[in-house]
## 1
Amino acid sequence: MSRSLNKVTLIGNVGGDPDVRTTASGSRVAKVSLATSRQFTDRSGQQQDRTQWHRLTFFGRLGDVVEQWVKKGDRLFVEGRLEYSQTQDEQGATRYWTDIIVNEMIMLGSGGPGRGTSDGAAQGPGSYGSQRSTRPQPPITEPDDDLPF
């Protein structure tokens, strides 16, 4: 079997308002950072929190939706693929980037005042993506155990 899969699924909170730009061809590209967190108990019995930050990129219609509806603190469910790139900074050093190119998004409740709900209900215009228009709501909570799998 020669088939492979590059797929990422995340649920997290937006770290800042979207950075939206227009390409030379006129299509919209939106970028946001997304924080995912997990809690666990370490070997000494202390509760630990770990937050990971992810760079999300939205093209075309999804970029338009992100520009209009997504704000700092919003909770998102996203699916996409990993892409790696590198750039040179001003000093000539190579910087490496990992981006998630999003092809599907569901806006979940943010819990903030006047925005969404705290129960994870879908908010705003709902689900957007290139593959499916309807999808069951993903679970939001994780079990409170420290199993390694």
## 2
Amino acid sequence: MNNLILQPALFMGVLSTIMMIWMYATRLPASKILQRQGANLQELSHPSALGGVFPSKVERVADNYNHLWEQPTLFYAVIFVIWAHQNTDTLYLYMAWSYCALRFLHSVVQSTINHVWIRFSLFMLSWIVLASMLFREILYLF
């Protein structure tokens, strides 16, 4: 049962990969359009220069991809601590998959309709699940 806790971590890796592909599938055509319009892409090489340059539908996907390298890094760490201490149980599995489902929904919402309150709610719910996993493991270990 202990190895089952690694499946949600792999799911998050797949989600990050899908978002990376989606980001480039939208960003490359948008970059070509900008270049045809006379933009010097080299001047846009730093991320801070990109704000507002691409259409919102392109930026939302890139923003989500970047977000998948923020909060989920703690998720990966917690998953590996649970796994290393062989503490996997049914509750951890439900929590881990709930976290994945919330992050998946967050990605879909941010990359499509980008409704702020829905996105914020999903973000906060995912934090609650992640914090619960973290503090439960802290209580177990200490």
## 3
Amino acid sequence: MEKTQSRFHWGWRIGIIYTTFALATIGFMIFSFTQKVDLVSPQYYADELRQDAKMLAENNALNLSEKFSLTHEGNILSIQFPNTPERGMIHLYRPSGSDLDKEIKIVGGIAQQSFSIANLTSGLWIAKVEWSVGQTSFYAERRFTK
């Protein structure tokens, strides 16, 4: 019996495997460097320093006898405050793209308020609502899908 010679020597096989691995690694690095990476907010570190005040405001909202509510119907976002806010802000946060975020100022002296969200793109939104009555701050978050 004659022994037939293989066209690919074992050294070639190792070279092909190593080259494939190296090219896959380089491809992954190029892919990862071209991806957009956003922090949660542009002022991430300043927000982190205010975390204790935010947690206190959230506990204040949870301890109210009536609860904060946010409803969404069509292009209208309605908010029912358990107490009448003197001032506040609604931050509409889009997790998939910080460039789509919006801020709406709360009108003082009105417990139930409605806002048009017709200009928002479809998808998941998080409404971060901060309001205050006197010297007491309140904070609540609600998710909704437009």
## 4
Amino acid sequence: MSYKKDLEEFIEFKKNYKFKQLKITTDKDGNLYCKKELVKDKNGYIGESDKWINVGYGLRGTYPKLLSNLFNYEFKFKGCKLNSIECFFQGIKFPDKKIQKKLFKYSGKEALVLKEASDYNWKETGIIYWQGQAIERNSEEYDDLLIELYVSAIQNVFYRNAIKNCPLPIIHAMGEEDPNKTVFTRYEFEFMLNCLHDFLNK
């Protein structure tokens, strides 16, 4: 594996990638469906069907957990050691780079909880921070940072193979749709993981 080679090739691959997001529908009882398969009912979300993998750390099934940003995959990103992808997404909500680096030492589940320890509300400004640098959440600069993040993450052989070996289209039904309310939307997540899957299997 080579980060530099992966990054160059993935950027080119992504430019021509044709992604068609699977539609999720709701019936009169509030149940969710994807490709006519039940995704969520009164008992909660379903992790796997014979038509898709629905990512969620707490869902039943192997791939829903393995593909979650909360899963503890250790990797290096821009000189920082992260214990999960989730550490990045929660860390960028802390303007202070020293505190951000401390958060990277926690597990994904712990990092998710620690977001409540920040006095800064990125939703009010639309600005996130990477190592003290202010970045607009809805910007090409942020998009480029996310590409580098995930290419860094697939340098971890376990994460790389989990994505590569996933046998079905990847969805994230519980994901937030509004980019002003989350640092990574359902669409962004599904695009990235499906694109990585196809890239690794090209």
